Amino acid sequence: MASGNMSNAGVPPMRDRSWGRVAVYVVVWALAVGYLVPFGVVLLNSFRTAEEIAQTSMIGWPTNWVFGNYTAAWATYCIAQTCSGIQPYMWNSALVTVPATILSTLLGAVAGYSISLWRFRGDAWIFGLVTMGVFLPEQMRLIPWTIVLRDLGMTNTIAGLVMIHTIQGLSFTTLFCRNYYVAIPVDLMKAARIDGAGFFRIFWRIVLPLSPPILIVTVIWQFTHIWNEFLYGVTFTTGQQQPVTAALIALSASVADVPQHGIQSAAVVVAALPTLLVYLFGGRYFVRGLTAGAVK
Amino acid sequence: MSALMIRDLHKRFGSVDVLKGVNLDIESGEFIVLVGPSGCGKSTLLNIVAGLEKPSGGTIEIGGRMVNDVAPSDRDIAMVFQSYALYPSMTVRQNITFGMECRNVPRAARDKAVEHVSKLLQIEPLLNRKPSQLSGGQRQRVAMGRALVRDPLLFLFDEPLSNLDAKLRVEMRAEIKQLHARIGTTIVYVTHDQVEAMTMATRIAVMHHGEVQQFADPETIYNRPANLFVARFMGAPPMNTLPARVDGGRVMLGDGSVALPIDAVGLGARDVVLGIRPECIAEPGRRFGDAAPLIIKARVEMIEPTGAETIVTLRLAGEKMIGRVAPDVRLAVGAEAEFAIDVRKLCLFDPKTERLI
Question: Which one, A18, A253, B15, B246, has least CB within 10 Å?
């Protein structure tokens, strides 16, 4: 996610022109520009022909705006001997990301709800174990997952990736939801129990209606995280089953007469588009949700 | 019929004894107030009666039925919380009907019950609002409505007025009392406010350190407190308690420079703690009953006019005491003044056991 957009909201008019303030803005702008330069280069290259890039420089303004890179990247460019563009891999990514996002968010909400509002023996331990997943490096989990996928016969399947991302995502979604739900007053739970509501009725009728702010946060988080995920995609799937992040590597590695930087750039932009859109439209809800309380 | 019977109830949290053998017998139709300072165990007791917490020992019977292992929803109780605990995402109507929805009450019966209760509490115009659109007093009413609609054997109130401003609190206090008079259902009401206890209860259970210190009607609690804790906790300002010595028909206060006549012939000569309510120390013109008033002299240390009366701190026989005089009495701070003492309501306590003699 780019960070440039976030500074718009809280910038006060620069009436106070003390040097410290000026220095802060110079640094912030420098960082923002530096952060955006690679994306800018890719974006510009996606509108340049391969010949132009090869003859001039990787960095440059398009002399001649072309849009053919996008159609080629989407539908006809060859990736690992299959000339279908990134379209099928985008579809793979969606098939992994959407179910895994929904499942991990819902399960995380139920888990966070039970840990925060239904105290039971050992709940703190379970919470600790679940959130430990947040801190475990991805690489450490590769071999265990390989074994699990093999034993379940899910190697090189989209369903396998959905399962991995759902379970791994639970660490984050449980943490988010639990921290949000602890702010729900215990009296609400007591009142509901006296009214005769059980675990799921309380969740469904009382807790879930309070949850949109945190559900938006977890959905955005999970969506961008799973969509951008590369290591599992490239490790556990090959060929036609790969998500787009993994397929992009194959694309850059494909041997061609001339390096197709324009098409590759277009493919990268298209692959990044879903998360960019999520950020542009959901970013403000993300920030708002992270700081929101459950009950006003 | 006994509405609620609590037998030898214990509750431990880890190594902390929160309730140490509580016994209460509550008759049907009573308005019982559990009062005590924070941490005395009164809310824990209420939660155990509601079934929201499990006791470590002892039994609870509601309406003659042992309910130790009965779920909160099956105990035929309704509860009003200090925070009101209204479901934020539901309208007032849904808040009131949620319990019936859980018990699968048919829609027609639900509507009828809502109509009845909202009329009783005058919350009809609020039925389609969300709790966030209500004032504190309105939320309080809705919380009561949610309890009333159940028509239970037992109402449990957990400091329901603590979050209201002073004026509204007094209004709601009167309203709850009237409501009880009208519907007649047994109420167990927890508060730390002794004025609420005195004004509303048919009987008061004063709690301290996880034990019931005294369980009696308000008049007895006020005039014949069972021990020094009750004496000092109930009443505002609280009862004056000071070391004294009885000898024959007299009680010598503090350093012995002041003596009051007292009907304590059987006590012989011994040390006591004397309890005297502030309203028993008044301006010299005051008459207590038919007897001629006893007049003493004391030094005025501070005066606090409240408008209706003046609270006066005075030093008598070396001890600090509080009296209540008429607002038009002029008192000079630092000077000696005369006060009339009502000796009919003196209480004597054992200095060791702190119990009423």
Answer: B15
Range of B6's domain?
2-233
Q: Is A295 on the interface with B (CB under 8 A)?
A: yes
Domain that holds residue A247: 87-291
ipTM value: 0.84
pLDDT band at A91 (very low <50, low <70, confident <90, very high): very high
Chain B residues with beta carbon closer than 8 angstroms to that of A211:
none
pLDDT tens for A48-87 read 988 888 888 888 888 888 888 899 888 888 776 777 888 9
Domain identity same for B216 and B336: no
Q: What are phi and psi of B279, to 5 degrees?
A: -70, -10
Q: What is the number of other CB atoms lying within 10 angstroms of the CB of residue B125? A: 10
Q: Which segments of chain B have a pLDDT < 50?
A: none
Residues of B with CB under 8 A from a CB of A: 47, 50-52, 71-74, 77-79, 81-90, 98-99, 102-103, 132, 146
Distances (CA, A) of B28 to A91, A165, A190, B46, B254: 69, 59, 25, 17, 46
Q: How many Å lie between the alpha carbon of B144 and the closest alpha carbon of chain A? A: 12
Inter-chain CB proximity A194 and B50 less than 8 Å: yes
Chain B residues in contact with A195 by the CB 8 A cut-off are: 73, 98-99, 102, 146
Task: Clarify whether residues B165 and B273 are in a common domain.
Answer: no
How far is the alpha carbon of B115 from chain A, nearest alpha carbon, in Å? 19
